[in-house]
Amino acid sequence: WMFSSVQFVQEHVSKNDTVLQFLSPAVNCCVDSTALRSVLWLDDEKEELKGFDYHPDPSFNQLLKNVITETSIIIVHGRGFSKAMTAKEAQAFVGDASCPVNILQPRSGSKRQRRDTTNDLLDLVVKFGHGEWTVGSVYYAQSKDIPLEIIIPSSQQAEREYEKVKHQLENLEESVRDRCKKEFTDLMIEMEDHTSDLSEARIPFLDYKMYTDRNFFLPTKDGSDDTMITGKIKIPEARKAIVAQALNQFSNLLNSKPFLINFIRTLESRPDFNARARGYFASLLTVALHGKLEYYTDIMRTLLLELMDEHVQNKNPKLMLRRSETVVERMLCNWMSICIYQFLRDTAGEPLYKLFKALKHQVEKGPVDAKMKKAKYTLNDTGLLGDDVEYSVLTLQVLVHGEGPDVTPVKVLSCDSITQVKEKIIDQVYRNLPYSQRPEVESVALEWRPGSTGQILSDLDLTSQKEGRWKRLNTLAHYNVRDNATLVLSRVLHSQSFHQHQDNYEEKNALLEDDHTFHLVRPADEMDEGKSKRGSMKDKSMTKAITEIYLTRLLSVKGTLQQFVDDFFRSVLCSGAVVPPAVKYFFDFLDEQAERHDNVDEETLHIWKTNSLPLRFWVNILRNPQFIVDVHVTEVVDASLHVVAQTFMDACTKTEHKLSRESPSNKLLYAKEISTYKKMVDDYYKGIREMVPISDQDMNTHLAEVSRQHTHELNTELALHQLYQYASKYYDVIIKSLDEDPAAQNKQLTLRLQQIAAALENKVTDL
């Protein structure tokens, strides 16, 4: 920017052959902005840029009101808000919570995202581009702090908006009801064909070892390569006996309550023992102590009482158990997983599996973009494939090489990529095998024999279509494969190139260049994006209609799957049938603790129960069915499962969800059902409270039986070995802490740990 002899210079942010990107330069406020010229300077070349208007930074008035509520709109007054920005570019934050900015006029309003109420002052920060202004401070008030005249007008207005949106949704649902009934009937028939017989024996439940591995260790940073899952560890043969004996002594030490409580407290006091390490440590502890679950439960109870007292004293009891940031919170999560395993197998696992299968089937009935991970049929609006894609349903006759003359009919879409076709073929041909026992997509080749010579089908080859710098993934339509065509599926040896028939150097390079590949919808290039920003008024006027079409499609999928969602919710939230003993026992424990503290009301108790079971366990299983059944969850299916899981979470909260046009689509989708689901949760908690109590003795008997049944399946020695790594890492502080603990001194715990260290690490001690 130039003003007579004064220059304001800004270096480029990024550049390539066709695009230069700059931030607008900071300009001295004393300069007349209307007299500024914009000049691009490249070496000795100067180019004046016409049509740029430079506006001063926005200014903000003092906040008129700094008390805000769960649903209030924050009004910010000032000047120059909409001169050079749009609402999409502006950002607002209360503390660290982002607020959607709805309007950009001299009166700018933004609704805050939900967060827990607190009286702490929080900065209200507004960002325009790379400029940031602290407008003032606000705090969230308790409802009793708000004058009644503020509540009533806003709630009446919200109620009118809510009723209006609800009515529109009911009309939309009515319009798709008949289609949903037909789709549901078709889905049931197709699922029966697909799964033959959905008896308990046909559901691929994970065995106890794989179930605990996936729940405890799969979410860790190493995932399926985690040592606890692979079971691989290097111990020299000559030391195996010494290590085994020392680990047995370490196990005895962990079974000393003063040592274990001290061990956990010492680790949690270390700043580098972060949330991830705490969760992993807790999972190792669960496996190591699995043989004595009564003792594990006692440790968990002791630590929970400490955590409770801490939250209540800090006057934030509602936050307890909200996250897994402490060892005991992860211990509780694992304890629930252990105690609910049999209930999953006997009761809730089948409706969960059927929901997953129905969702997968429905998603795959329509086009799924393999690159963008978007689908025509989904519950998730962000994963919705907006573009119309031409396709037809084909039935392929599939021969498996080396497995006899029998053909398997497989339904696919003409727009499916070759990898998608392989996945559908494997699903159908090997439908009676769990996912982990099926051949991997990369290990099979697909051959089509339209004439005397066969043709290997692949996602990319020399025939792939090019659109500028983009290359389209091959589909069945690309190869002109017709309905009823015969294809041969064969295994490929790993030593061979996957495209073994294509030795051409150029072709191999073409296969490797997949940075600019697309499947159904080509991403917009920079030139296209420029055009779309200047979109016509006609395009903009269509947006509302398009949104309604998309919502109708979401509602159609939701209606088709409604029975499966309801069945799962009922199986989990039914206190009239079987309730796992651990749930009754733990909820009674929470009831007792709530009575012990004066400032724990019914809402807080409801939150505790929700955080300890539905949010801690059921939401996790709903999002990850692979944690209980041997299946593969694709990204598009995962996106829809997240919507169902979010609905389950909403049903468990006491907060009323008032609808508006800005509500997220998942809230709109299940608006009609949410009150029913909330009542199911309330009735479930009430029903459990009215059940006959479970004594400590009965609970211990139940836990002892779980230990007896399953401990031999787990690798407790490996868990002990991994746990000892923490004792080794923090050895000095643990020894110091034990030396200062009278209970530890009485039991000579320091000496015992030193002896174990000497055996495991040849540590030199002063013994």
TrEMBL record:
CC per GO annotation: plasma membrane; semaphorin receptor complex
BP term (GO), one: regulation of cell migration
GO molecular function: semaphorin receptor activity
CDD domains, per database record: RasGAP_plexin_B2
Domain of life: Eukaryota
Occurrences of domain Plexin cytoplasmic RasGAP (ranges): 203-733
Residue stretches making up the Plexin cytoplasmic RhoGTPase-binding domain: 379-488
Designated name of the protein: Plexin-B2
Annotated Pfam families: Plexin_cytopl (PF08337), Plexin_RBD (PF20170)
